[in-house]
Amino acid sequence: MDMTQAIILTIMTAATPLLLAAIGELVVERSGVLNLGVEGMMIMGAVAAFAIAQLTGSAGLGALGGLLAGILFSLLFGFLTLTLVANQVATGLALTILGLGLSGMIGEAFIGLPGLKLAAIEIPFLSDIPFFGRLLFAQDPIFYISIIAVIGVNWFLFRSRAGLRLRAIGDSHTSAHALGVNVVRTRYLAVMFGGACAGLAGAHLSIVYTPQWVENMTAGRGWIALALVVFASWRPGRALVGAYLFGAVSIGQLFAQSRGIGIPSQFLSALPYLATIAVLVIISLNRRMTLINTPASLGKPFVPER
Amino acid sequence: MKKTLLSLAAATALAGIAAPAQAAGMDKVKACFVYVGPVGDFGWSYQHDQGRKYAEEKLGDKLETAYLESVPEGADSERAIERFARSGCNIIFTTSFGYMDPTNKVAKDFPDVKFEHATGYKTEHPNVATYDSKFFQGRYVIGQIAAKMSETGSAGYIASFPIPEVVQGINSFMLGAQSIDPDFKLKVVWVNTWFDPGKEADAAKVLLDGGVDILTQHTDSTAPMQVAAERGAHAFGQASDMIAFGPETQLTAIIDDWGPYYYERIKAVLEGTWEQSRTWDGMAEGHVVMAPYTNMPDDVKAMAEETEAKITSGELHPFTGPIMKQDGTEWLADGEVAEDGELAGLNFYVKGIDDQLPQ
User: Fold this and answer.
1) What domains, with CATH codes, occur in chain B?
2) Taking the mean position of all CA atoms in its chain, how far away is CA B311?
3) Most C-beta atoms within 10 A of its C-beta, which of A198, A207, B178, B340?
4) Where does the signal peptide begin and end (chain B) (predicted)?
5) Which residue of B186, B206, B216, B221 to mutate against A (max A Cβ within 10 Å)?
6) What's the mean pLDDT in A7-22?
7) Which residue of B has its CA nearest to A252?
């Protein structure tokens, strides 16, 4: 493996959890729900994945556990905001705070234990392609899922009837309701999908990226995923570009430092965020495109009229 | 009139009794701790919390403790410290460099509460003390080990923030390495965080990809150790013994042992003998402990043990001249030893480090 490949691999590992969590949240927001609890669902996924992998001895079951934990946690959000119609912003923030605290409590017994790592799956023949084979076809299962999720969500949102309904709800839940679409049920499913993605992204952190459990190990990645959704202007393909761009700039600055390039490290550390702001400014220059993509009833509570 | 005199006398008598009682201390003390990371980081904050538990165990019923974890440095920490001061804490330990100004600010408003700030240098009020450990002593030892063990003649250093304590560590590591191999190369990567396992792992991967075969870190998670283990490189544990994360990887670890210090200082509050101090202890006092030397040949181990013994006895000080600054000018003349005060404000590299120190 040469150095370019090694660096790209590092970037891919850094980008995968961001991409996965962003894709989940993208679907949630497309349905008109703003869930700021991504960080909380992610950390719950991380602790559940680690704990279950330890207890069962199987990293695969751990990943599944992380996914389920994300769904369970998102259901709490769904119940509060969709059934009880609580404020989405406040509930999402509460979910993050609860997740960070609860995961610390659950994970106390697992501190200081080396974890199991989810094994890479090498796809026969394809992984033998020079240069790209090792990069694209000899990865951990969560990486494959993240790429499939991008393609799948893109197809679902823009090519399927159900996706059209989901977007209609996101743009105007009252109109969709009047047309006989079950707004609350669709939103529940979207929120659960978001939870599953965030949970799996957390699992990636604790059983692939850094196979260990330490409190607060998400370190703000849930928030970056949220920013990526806006960055992507709610389009899956752009979320992929955004996540990899962010990963590339974060790793690139570390690499530049290790090569002894004389740029102040504080500036280099700020680069990923500066890049994000720059792209956001460029995107928002085209106001019409932004408006078309933004779900119009994002964050608004929905109470069905009887 | 007589009555007034009597009561006055009584009051004086009472005061007379009360005053020595105060000096003799109190029955129960409440000690509070502010941590920069989660107690479960298995690094810096974890070790401080172990120290808290040690003091609790030693003092039993006489001690009540409380702690706040993951408190960001800066304005947030001021609120946290003030909350503790209001809630009846008798002594407050603030355990990160960035709490320095907030600690002094709150201390001004609460003269009866004792404040202890770790790794800083400001004691603006009589109720503020500072404490730190000479981790650079351990870093000299691991620098020597790195120079002996590296096949590429280079090591990677994952650094957090360019504060004096971190700069001391980098310099001391390099001086140790140069004492074995004068051409030793050190690559420094600043991650600008104390704790982010993912980012620390990224930095570790980038350094190993760049050709170093030994890693050391001044950040708090075990992630770099794990990356080194995966790649078959070697690494040094930080703050706590991280051997579980790299049974065939860890060469040794520099362990922070805060327990004895916390016990002593809290006991001093109990007994009423607490005084402002600036503690900076190291191997000799047992505040800096080296984990067992593992995964190295016997001659390297013997060398490390000898250096450790020399530093403990005071025979060897890592910052002994001749030492040149990075720009080639002289810092310490032959045989000259750096003073503690100068080290506490260290803001330049020694010669041979291939990095530009962020200012």
Assistant:
1) 27-133+258-281 (3.40.50.2300), 135-248+288-344 (3.40.50.2300)
2) 17
3) A198
4) 1-23
5) B206
6) 94
7) B206
